[in-house]
Amino acid sequence: MNQSSVSLVKPGGKLESATNVEKREDVINEEQLLPNTTIVTHCIYRNDTETLKRCFEDPTSPYKDQMNELLNQRDDDGKSPLDVAAILERTDIVKMLIQFGADVNIFTSKGYSCLHYAALWGRLEVLQILVENGGNLYQRNIHGETPRDAALRYNQTESATYLELAG
């Protein structure tokens, strides 16, 4: 989407032109995104729950129509937004992504799921959220490891213990 195609409706129904969009503090244009990110991953890296929520819920958001598509879109490293949020331990964003429909059981070409990433990085609170929302405890990566096995390989004993008890 280029900036000239953006139009927003201000409170009261007045149409705001694209040239005024960059003056709005609550709108992030594509040119302002971190390199190689979508608006979703940009918000994850910045831990910006407010903007992310607005992109999903605000009908005037220039990103509103593409948010569902971006929920499970993989980055150049093959990671989904949920994978990135799990690694960075963005618990509020993990909850929000799940609330808006992110798939907790998609996995990379190497078989890693967000549960694997949370386990091997020792993100216990994220693990709990993912398990409570149907995360597959038995998904195996290309090394034949479940999330618990990955946690053990990286000496994340708390994560491994939690996953053992959850199974």
UniProtKB/TrEMBL annotation:
Keyword Repeat carried by entry: yes
InterPro entries: Ankyrin_rpt, Ankyrin_rpt-contain_sf
Segments annotated as ANK repeats: 77-109, 110-142
Gene giving rise to this polypeptide: ORF20275
The protein's name in its UniProt record: Uncharacterized protein
Keyword line: ANK repeat, Repeat
A Pfam cross-reference name: Ank_2
Superkingdom of origin: Eukaryota
Presence of keyword Repeat: yes
Species classification: Eukaryota, Metazoa, Spiralia, Lophotrochozoa, Mollusca
